């Protein structure tokens, strides 16, 4: 049986919740070499790595997707897809519009004005996985918040297929989402091109979007030179369920994550052993009908299973420890338990809100923190693509009222020039007052 049933507190259950992916040193060295080559050799290195890893020979001219290629893409997608894509686009845009922060400035009683300016970044890069699969949903989830934020230049990179093209679904999604430049490059070399710039690709200020281990480690390496959204790991779902949950639904939801990747994690927490056994049976049954059953089976054997808890309170406590990317509450009254959930990338409540609702159409972003980082990271959002600048304007009256406190604090830190910058003004204000 691919889906194990474990007891909470057991060694096996702890290993399942706190999964490890092994030593990354060999990947890190390879990524550093790629980054160094692209930084030094620019387009030449990017094109060489594209030929080596993707089996596609491109030139600096053909690396960028042309308007003709985008126009052709529209002829190769069906109207039903286009209608679904535009519904998703509108939902995602409406949700992220509600996140827009505003600049503000407020005067105090002394006439001083303090505030905050909120402005979009000028140029951002989004990474979209590709090559062997199509992910138009990832295009929407990365590009739309940037567009809503007001970013002028949205640069998309994605690995090409063997024919040297990008998927028409990906290209149509890019156009619908407001992407302004598209390049047929992927992997660590694409991250390097975005971070350092090349003869063809100008550097960006922020890189977002999930990818494989090489992409993730490349983003980690270039952080500081550019900003990044997060370090996304393999996908994960954790479901808290009681005896009222439907085993068919639970099995389907667990498999929806397991099919992503052999490293994906699919875990059920429940106090009901009867439910766990029913779900395990359903997983076996439904697995046979999946096109990606080999991937899903390997994922479940290594990182899937049900953990039997003493009660729902213990299940919630374990969920907060795990801080999952996706958390489903499949219990009788999910809203009753919502307030107890402290850490999760996204929370799905009730039997009719399976995780794919969030992946594709509802509106909230599906780029979510993984590997327990939901304890301190948030979902990709509009503010990811914005920066905040503090605004200060003191009056003479304001500085005279508070200046001595500033001088005291600066002198205490031994920064006498800081203190002097205020003191000279106070001296003039005192003389003016005496006159």
From TrEMBL:
Catalytic activity field = L-histidinol + 2 NAD(+) + H2O = L-histidine + 2 NADH + 3 H(+)
What one GO molecular function would you report for this record?
NAD binding
Give the EC number(s) under which this enzyme is classified. Answer: 1.1.1.23
Q: Which residues bind Zn(2+)?
A: 257, 260, 359, 418
Q: How is the cofactor bound?
A: Binds 1 zinc ion per subunit.
SUPFAM superfamilies, per this entry?
Answer: ALDH-like
Enumerate the active-site residues: 325 (proton acceptor), 326 (proton acceptor)
Name the chain's protein: Histidinol dehydrogenase
GO biological process terms on file:
L-histidine biosynthetic process
Species the sequence originates in:
Carboxydocella sporoproducens DSM 16521
Give the protein's cofactors. Answer: Zn(2+)
Which of UniProt's keywords are assigned here? Answer: Amino-acid biosynthesis, Histidine biosynthesis, Metal-binding, NAD, Oxidoreductase, Zinc
The protein's role, per its UniProt record: Catalyzes the sequential NAD-dependent oxidations of L-histidinol to L-histidinaldehyde and then to L-histidine.
Question: What is the taxonomic lineage of the source species?
Answer: Bacteria, Bacillati, Bacillota, Clostridia, Eubacteriales
Q: Identify the gene encoding this protein.
A: hisD
Q: Which family does it belong to?
A: Belongs to the histidinol dehydrogenase family.
Q: In which pathway does it act?
A: Amino-acid biosynthesis; L-histidine biosynthesis; L-histidine from 5-phospho-alpha-D-ribose 1-diphosphate: step 9/9
User: InterPro entries of this UniProt entry?
Assistant: Ald_DH/histidinol_DH (IPR016161), Histidinol_DH_CS (IPR001692), Histidinol_DH_monofunct (IPR022695), Hstdl_DH (IPR012131)
Residues reported in the UniProt entry to bind NAD(+): 127, 189, 212
Q: Which domain of life is it from?
A: Bacteria
